[in-house]
Design goal:
This protein has about 210 residues and is an alpha/beta fold. About 35% of the residues lie in helices and about 20% in strands.
């Protein structure tokens, strides 16, 4: 759960009036509701393993006239959850869908990096295997666009090493726990500096575009 100070009045109102709250982790959603004084709601778990049937059941509730709110654990956009599938299913059912803007580790990390970010590429969670990671980065070898990706705290060093092999000595910013109490930015240059460790929490990596 992020910084409660980032929860907007509109987001609070949306959760208050919702009949059903779908979330990646209902335990986190329950703590969020309790922390901001919202009475208990019907909670439905929709994580990355949720199948079409789970999404269909949530959409059916909305078709019946209920107000459904979907909460992403890691902020905006929904990356490791079925957020896109849920939106598509709702649109196909003729339902109105609204996005309530919220905290985004992507834009926060871009701002903190200090890198030119008028154009950037968001890679989400990159491939774990070094060979596949190299293949994913290779088309960006000569790109001037800043790169942003999510990574496990235990894999950051390996990912930066592979990036150094493909992209050369670009600057990087490892942004940890964006908007939270222990927010931290570790800066360096690929192939020269290490992020240190062991890291904990959610990590967003920003790599400068070619200059």
């Amino acid at each position: 759960m992020g910084n409660l100070g980032d929860l907007s009045p509109r987001a609070r109102e949306t959760l208050t009036v919702a009949d059903l709250v779908a979330a990646e982790d209902t335990r986190v959603a329950s703590r969020l509701l309790a922390a901001v004084g919202i009475p208990k709601k019907t909670l439905v778990r929709l994580d990355e393993h949720a199948g079409p049937s789970a999404i269909s059941r949530v959409v059916e509730r909305a078709v019946e006239g209920q107000t459904v709110a979907f909460v992403t654990d890691a902020g905006v956009p929904g990356v490791s959850d079925p957020g896109a599938d849920l939106v598509q299913a709702a649109v196909e059912a003729g339902l109105a869908v609204e996005c309530v803007p919220g905290p985004s580790a992507v834009t926060a990390a871009l701002a903190l990096s200090g890198f030119y970010a008028q154009q950037y590429v968001f890679l989400g969670y990159p491939p774990r295997r070094p060979g596949r990671l190299r293949a994913a980065l290779e088309p960006l070898r000569d790109s001037t666009m800043t790169l942003v990706l999510f990574e496990s705290p235990h894999r950051v060093a390996e990912t930066l090493n592979v990036a150094a092999e493909v992209l050369g000595g670009r600057r990087f910013a490892v942004c940890r726990e964006m908007t939270k109490a222990f927010e931290e930015v570790i800066r360096g240059r690929l192939g020269e500096d290490e992020p240190g460790g062991p890291l904990k929490g959610e990590v967003t990596v920003v790599i400068e575009g070619r200059r």
